[in-house]
Design a protein that fits this description.
This protein is an alpha+beta fold. It is 19% helix and 32% strand. Strand 6 and strand 7 form a beta hairpin.
Length: 285
């Protein structure tokens, strides 16, 4: 199984159309089974999407309708034009930068989505509050695994600390974790070099960082510089690059390879984050 996660930055990116094409080219060549995306945006005042952009969409209750420039819809449309059957689900979470409906998405290349769920993990649940956080998960045909796309807050946020959000997440997925494999994919805002905080907490709670067990892997760096949200937090440290994006698994699994993708070395850069792609072998029960 091949999994991919990327914080897309989507419509906020300069040269967006070019980067969208680079992303599509990469997906067509990589052919991941499951894709988890974060910061999946659409312009809030854009026109409602044409019928063709709704193809393959698994419907869940949402606060806003799908718009014409929705990043996930445009990705799926282009993949379908290239002959790739793609099923997907999108969750709008909050208004970003005063003009974007920002959310998360999951794509399944080939397999139909059989179930999906969405739930808040932040105490605040206000669409106009940028601190609002929610999680989206799905199951696909032929697999009992649950796949989640996640964008967490910061450990030291005074109003919405990571730990509170993590406890909400674990409570909601605890039964699924007991009954089978659960994959957490996304931007966790959890640098692995900071001791006693988010990353260590995740591992302490029994989650497997697929990077740590991969038979083949690179440096794992997913952010090449100190980006927004980290400049003040790391102002006293000499940090040039970080691992913020991960694929965690609830059970032991054999990972053949872990590669950072869309980083300028392994495919062109398409976002302020790089992507993570893993290839797994058979599961270990």
């Amino acid at each position: 199984m091949k999994l991919l996660t990327l914080n897309t930055h989507s419509l906020q990116e300069e040269n967006y159309e070019q980067k969208l094409e680079w992303f599509i080219e990469g997906i067509l060549q990589e052919k991941p089974d499951i894709i988890a995306l974060q910061e999946v945006n659409q312009t809030s005042d854009a026109a409602v999407a044409e019928d063709i952009l709704w193809e393959g969409l698994y419907s869940i209750p949402a606060q806003v309708p799908l718009k014409q420039d929705n990043h996930a819809a445009q990705v799926v449309y282009r993949l379908r034009q290239a002959g790739v059957v793609c099923h997907w689900v999108w969750l709008p979470i909050k208004l970003g930068y005063g003009k974007y409906d920002e959310g998360v998405a999951l794509l399944s290349l080939g397999r139909k989505i059989t179930a999906a769920e969405a739930f808040p993990i932040s105490k605040v649940n206000d669409y106009h509050n940028w601190r609002t956080r929610a999680v989206l998960g799905m199951q696909v045909e032929g697999l009992t695994d649950w796949f989640y796309t996640i964008h967490m807050g910061w450990w030291d946020d005074a109003e919405e600390p990571f730990l509170d959000q993590w406890k909400q997440l674990e409570e909601r997925i605890s039964e699924k974790r007991r009954n089978g494999f659960v994959w957490l994919m996304g931007d966790f805002n959890a640098p692995d070099f900071v001791s006693g905080q988010s990353y260590e907490w995740i591992l302490t709670n029994g989650w497997l960082d697929t990077y740590s067990v991969a038979l083949e892997k690179d440096r794992g760096i997913t952010v090449p510089c100190v980006i927004d949200g980290w400049k003040e937090r790391l102002k006293d440290q000499e940090v040039k690059a970080m691992r913020l994006d991960y694929i965690f698994c609830s059970h032991r699994v054999c990972v053949k390879s872990f590669q950072v993708i869309f980083n300028g070395e392994n495919r062109p850069v398409v976002s302020d984050h790089f992507g993570v792609r893993i290839v797994t072998k058979e599961k270990i029960v």
